Amino acid sequence: MVATPKIRTQVGIIGAGPAGLFLSELLHRHGIASVILESRTREEIEGTIRAGVLENWTVDLMNQLGVGERMMREGHFHTGITLRFKGQSHHLDMVELTGGKKVTVYPQHEVIKDLVAHRLAQGAEIHFGVRDVALHDIISDRPFITYAQADGTPAVLTCDFIAGCDGFHGPSRQAIPAAARKEFQKIYPYGWLGILTEAPPSHHELIYARHDRGFALLSMRSPEIQRLYVQCDPKDDIALWPDARIWSELHQRLETVDGWTLTEGPIIQKGIIAMRSFVCETMRHGRLFLAGDAAHIVPPTGAKGLNLAVADVLVLSRALEKFYAQGDSAGLDAYAATCLARIWKGERFSWYMTTMLHTDEAASPFEHRIREADLDYVVSSRAAATALAENYVGLPI
Ligand code: APR
Ligand code: PHB
């Protein structure tokens, strides 16, 4: 009989999304060893289309970590965003409002590719395609993870700490007893139908549009590819959205300003996502620390998801560094409270942008007018515009 492979590391990381990959990179910089267990293949994680806006400090962090070279070459750096409603366009100059901070569009899967390549070149252990990940003895000081390797062989990873970076559906959060978790959730009655289309960007910056027919967003991926979203029913079957219907809605919702036209091209990818806000209070149980989507979800308006995940692991890496270098566990003890204070602000901002920009059939005419007043306020008050801008480019960390 073949013995079960047993490996040992300092921090066992579950999930190779932005949270897990940034954490392993940050720990490496502090001389702390980690192993990542990821259920999907490298091709799958590098090919999944997600959001694409990086906060200003996330860009700085990528550069500090030496993984920013391609982003600086291929990313789109914008001075601001456009809000479009009631037939008018309003430019918010983020650079001017925030004293120099830019909007960076660089897709999440490109960030993933850069981090995976960098970690593997440093000799990191990332096990792709693992199955049946289970967490054990998390309240002891020798927690361990059991799993099946890609070839089906059972294996064990023992560690000092476990980082649950396995997204909303992963096993880590469930490993915390329900009685020790307090969960907050809001499900929105909106979905986003997202497309990639082979056409040069119709505008040099992002356009967020509120329209009686629903929200629409113009973004981009490269000089040849646009990313567009249109608000839909989250329960809609994609078959209800042939290309002609998508274009018709995008034209109606975005072309509300005289003389501006949306460029069409072949649709090369499309999909519908539902929208929720979710926070799990306590992000720590014994030696298990949750980070990123495992602990919190935001709706995509404002693209905070990746940035919140990276903020968590930056706090966690600093706390672990203190623990290993000085035997000081104060940072670990403060981890959940430190992260949650910032997370709730990200939740608030994502909820605010979502509510203000989407149309809700169930909302009363009064609420409808309040949302319009919110938008009017942002484009007519420097104080309101500054508040939006400082959240958009990223609150201090
Ligand atoms: N075992 C191992 N890995 C798992 C398991 C499991 N049982 N379950 C999930 N995973 C992996 C997923 O395959 C995924 O690659 O964990 C990873 C989690 O990555 P993300 O879902 O990207 O979450 P996170 O790293 O927290 O990134 C923040 O915010 O708004 C979103 O799109 C944004 O994905 C981004 C996220
Ligand atoms: C994207 O490009 O995918 C994107 C941009 C801005 C958002 C959300 C998503 O607010």
UniProtKB/TrEMBL annotation:
An example molecular function term from Gene Ontology annotations: FAD binding
Presence of the UniProt keyword Flavoprotein in the record: yes
Keyword set, alphabetical order: FAD, Flavoprotein, Monooxygenase, Oxidoreductase
Organism domain of life: Bacteria
FAD-binding domain ranges (all copies): 8-349
SUPFAM superfamilies on file: FAD-linked reductases, C-terminal domain (SSF54373), FAD/NAD(P)-binding domain (SSF51905)
InterPro entries, per the entry: FAD-bd (IPR002938), FAD/NAD-bd_sf (IPR036188), RIFMO-like (IPR050641)
Record's keyword annotation contains Secreted: no
Protein name: p-hydroxybenzoate 3-monooxygenase
Species in which this protein is naturally found: Nitrospirillum amazonense
